[in-house]
Fold this sequence. Notes:
Elements: H1 28-36, H2 45-55, H3 61-71, E1 91-95, E2 98-102, H4 113-133, E3 151-156, E4 165-173, E5 176-187, H5 192-195, H6 199-220, H7 225-239, H8 271-274, H9 276-286, H10 289-298, H11 309-317, H12 323-333, H13 337-340, E6 354-358, E7 364-371, E8 375-383, E9 392-398, E10 406-414, E11 417-422, E12 430-436, E13 442-451, E14 456-457, E15 469-470, E16 475-484
Helix pairs in contact: 1-2, 4-6, 6-7, 7-9, 10-11
Amino acid sequence: MRGWILAVVVALTLLAPVPAVADDPVDPALDAARSAFSGEPTRDTTMVLRDLFIAQQQLGGAQRREAQAYLARPTDGATDQFGDGYAVPAERKCRGHICIHWVTSTADAPPSQAWVNSTLKFMNKVWRIEVGQLGYRAPLSDKKRGGNGKLDVYLKEVGSRGVYGYCAPERRAQGRKWLASGYCVLDNDFSEAQYGAPPRDSMRVTAAHEFFHAVQYSYDYGEDPWLMEATATWMEERVADDVNDNRQYLAHGQVGQPSQSLDRFNEQGFNQYGNWAFFEFLSARYGIGVVRSIWNEAGAFAGGGHQFSTAAVKSVLARRGGFANVFRAYAGGNAVPARTYAEGKAWPAAPASQTWDLTKAAPRKADTLRINHLASRNVKITPGAGVRKGWKLRIAVDGPEARTSPAAYLVVRRKNGISTNPIPLNSKGVGRALIPFSGRQTYSATVTLVNASTRFSCWHQTNWSCQGRARDDQQRFILSASVVPARR
């Protein structure tokens, strides 16, 4: 679920949650669910309910009953006492793999029967694309929880609290701890007044995104949330490429903020959605099946790789040049998205954290930059006054040692085009480059310094890969650049 992205979140007046016993601390997952269903700005509802589903087995008494109420379906009515229960009896229509549920009165009613039919038809199209054409595992059957074994989708007015929709895990597969069936909720009308886009466009991208969460639950519902959200946002391009709703997140991900780590899950932000660009880069270079390969490595099903997110990505890319080399090209390529991505002309370019103007009078510049894991920083170098034909730019990188996976990339913009090349670093993290740098022929040279480390200490209850702590944050890179006049 892409979460509370509306400009204004309207608070709902809901029944107060069941209070915990005074001496019983509130579980963090339950506390997050309270916020999500009270109209407060919150992280996305799908991950809130996913976390609550995991936590409920360890809850007891009133807290467990409260968790079950949050996880209830809209058709559970009064049992779903925290805002998503239908107040009147529901209708149901099934076709293909999907059943749609809706009501004909109250604020939850969709605008017409035609809207219901259109949503049902499109949800089946999503199934055909994601499962049939792209080859992902189908969502697990709910064993007739909604009346039969098909995937249940509920239309509900959720836009007033800034939500597009969500999919909740519901029942563990027998003998498979980390596989589960689920159900989905979509807004009942995707009003343009609430979402700022044509209703059918909003419905299409939400259907593609949320259905993929139901698919993910058949791989591993406990997977790292950054991977779940970034790939679900990437899936929007596969199903509804013309809508381009996901471009709004690029400024929040590594395209717009390269210095933040790829695997960060921000409970109150959008960077995990913006990082769909990483998977767009991979699928453009290696084919769209590469993302399915990653999920197979992450999968907890029989024959799956049982790896956490970054380890799964690393395993797949080991056969494609190695993670560090691929991540280096991705980070550098974000500085020139029009060259890197099929639709990149409409994307923002990764910004430079510093810009150095080298002149004849001030020919050298150097600085130390600190970079966190799975992140990068760009330094843009321009030829200034007195830098003429025949001059060259000398670049020196002094990074951390090789075991922490440092890397560097160079993008040069000239009048006759753009060139992109890695700057090889030795085992001590040292590398050099020398390029023509005429003020008349060269616009700029951008050096991308990369920390491609995938080393973690896992299971510390964080929002990073494997709930861990990165072992190689704040790595030091010393970059120096100087212009050298032509030899006479």
